[in-house]
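Record type: monomer structure entry
Structure origin: computed from sequence
Chain ID: A
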Amino acid sequence: MAFGIKIVQQNSQGLVETLGKYSHSVESGLHLYIPFIQRIRNVSLAMAPLSLPNYSIITKDNADVSASVTLNYHITSAVKYQYENTDSVESMAQLVRGHLRDIIGRMDLNEALGSTAKINQELAVAIGDLTNTYGINVDRINIDELTPSKAIQTAMDKQLTADRERVASIAKAEGEAKSIELTTKAKNEAMIATSKAEADSTKIRANAEKYRIDTIQEGLANADDRYFQNQSINAYSDLAKSKSNMVVVPSDNAQTYGQIPGLAKVFKESTKEDKKS
C-alpha cells in the first residue's frame, strides 16, 4: 500500500482526518498517511496579529466615534478552532466589537477619548479566555484610535479655539493689570522718595536757620552797651543817607545825636526848611 508523506511545521499541529472525520492530532515533524482515505490539516499555533477596521460606536452622550483596534492571538485548541466554528477568527472579532461598543457606550465622549488605557483593560477582562468557545486566546488588545465624527471634530476645534482665546484674553488682562500695578508702585515710590528728599532738605534748612539764630542770640547775649550803641549809630547813618527829611528818635540820648555827622546834616536841612516855611 502506498503512503503519503506530510510534514507538520514547527509550532504547528497536524489534524488527521480519516474519510473526512477528525481522527487524531499529530505534532510537528514527518508523518505518513493513506492517500484518498486520510489527510492531515496543518494548523499554526504561533501568535498572529489581527487588525479590526474602523467601525462606528455611539457614546453615552450620543456622539459618533470611529474605533480602530489591533490584537494578537494564538490558537490554544486546534480541534475547536478547526471543527467547532466555521470562522473562529471572525467570531472572535465580532465578540471584541460587541464588548467595545458596550464599554464605550457607557462613557461620555470626553471620558472615552481620555480613557483608552482603561478601555483596553476592561476589554481584555470582558473577552477573557476564548479557548473553550473558539480555541483561541487573545494575548494583547489595544485601541489604536478613537476618532470623533467630522461634525464633532469641527465643534471641538471651535470650542478649543474659544478656550484658547479666553485664556489668552485673561493672560493679557492679568499682564496689563500687573503692569499697571508695577507702574503705580513705581510712581508711589518715586513720590515717597521725592517727599522724603524735600522733607530732609527742609529739615536741613531749618537746622541751618536755627543754628544761625542760636549763634546770633549767643552773640547778643555776650554783647555790651557799646555794641548796641555802634549798631544804633550805623542805623542812623544809613537813615541819614536816605531821602527822608524826618527822623523820629528817642529822647533819652538826644544829646549824642549831634556827634553823628549824618544826623547833624539832617538837622541842618530840617532847620532850613523850617525857616523857609
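Annotation 1: The radius of gyration is 59 Å.
Annotation 2: Helices lie at 78-83, 88-105, 109-113, 116-127, 131-134, 150-221, 225-240, 261-276.
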